[in-house]
């Protein structure tokens, strides 16, 4: 499974692609940050972010996209910029028919470090350890994007397999019911 993790932000939007499966070593494909300048109009900054995300989707062709779920902070302008960048990521993935998962910051921290309250340094160090990198991806937004991709592979991949198994079981039960009904109708 190949996952594009996106840590949305208006100034720095982290993007990272990780490849692998649950129970197997993961591999970092690429990581970077899409940057915009605070001196540029917001609409222009959003166009830059959307174009950057589209480039990553086209170049790396992920199987899924994992985006950090926006949560309320004290600074409304930060929340707004993050939400706008997050919306762009969701739309870009949806346009390409890719499944999208939202993961909370504490879920990501717990997945990669075992501690839902881990700080950015701890998350970066664990990302480096998990992927066998000499150093954490930098800046922290890049490491966070990679952590999102890791989380999705470990948690989202397992969740999608469970959902597929449940759907198959339900389909099998429906088929069994049709066969039983056909048998019963044949006896009349």
UniProtKB/TrEMBL annotation:
<keyword id="KW-0255">Endonuclease</keyword>
<dbReference type="Pfam" id="PF02075">
    <property type="entry name" value="RuvC"/>
</dbReference>
<comment type="similarity">
    <text>Belongs to the RuvC family.</text>
</comment>
<feature type="binding site">
    <location>
        <position position="68"/>
    </location>
    <ligand>
        <name>Mg(2+) 2</name>
    </ligand>
</feature>
<comment type="subunit">
    <text>Homodimer which binds Holliday junction (HJ) DNA. The HJ becomes 2-fold symmetrical on binding to RuvC with unstacked arms; it has a different conformation from HJ DNA in complex with RuvA. In the full resolvosome a probable DNA-RuvA(4)-RuvB(12)-RuvC(2) complex forms which resolves the HJ.</text>
</comment>
<keyword id="KW-0460">Magnesium</keyword>
<keyword id="KW-0234">DNA repair</keyword>
<dbReference type="InterPro" id="IPR036397">
    <property type="entry name" value="RNaseH_sf"/>
</dbReference>
<feature type="active site">
    <location>
        <position position="68"/>
    </location>
</feature>
<feature type="binding site">
    <location>
        <position position="7"/>
    </location>
    <ligand>
        <name>Mg(2+) 1</name>
    </ligand>
</feature>
<keyword id="KW-0479">Metal-binding</keyword>
<dbReference type="InterPro" id="IPR012337">
    <property type="entry name" value="RNaseH-like_sf"/>
</dbReference>
<keyword id="KW-0540">Nuclease</keyword>
<dbReference type="InterPro" id="IPR002176">
    <property type="entry name" value="X-over_junc_endoDNase_RuvC"/>
</dbReference>
<protein>
    <recommendedName>
        <fullName>Crossover junction endodeoxyribonuclease RuvC</fullName>
        <ecNumber>3.1.21.10</ecNumber>
    </recommendedName>
</protein>
<comment type="function">
    <text>The RuvA-RuvB-RuvC complex processes Holliday junction (HJ) DNA during genetic recombination and DNA repair. Endonuclease that resolves HJ intermediates. Cleaves cruciform DNA by making single-stranded nicks across the HJ at symmetrical positions within the homologous arms, yielding a 5'-phosphate and a 3'-hydroxyl group; requires a central core of homology in the junction. The consensus cleavage sequence is 5'-(A/T)TT(C/G)-3'. Cleavage occurs on the 3'-side of the TT dinucleotide at the point of strand exchange.</text>
</comment>
<feature type="binding site">
    <location>
        <position position="141"/>
    </location>
    <ligand>
        <name>Mg(2+) 1</name>
    </ligand>
</feature>
<keyword id="KW-0378">Hydrolase</keyword>
<keyword id="KW-0238">DNA-binding</keyword>
<keyword id="KW-0963">Cytoplasm</keyword>
<feature type="active site">
    <location>
        <position position="141"/>
    </location>
</feature>
<dbReference type="InterPro" id="IPR020563">
    <property type="entry name" value="X-over_junc_endoDNase_Mg_BS"/>
</dbReference>
<keyword id="KW-0227">DNA damage</keyword>
<feature type="active site">
    <location>
        <position position="7"/>
    </location>
</feature>
<keyword id="KW-0233">DNA recombination</keyword>
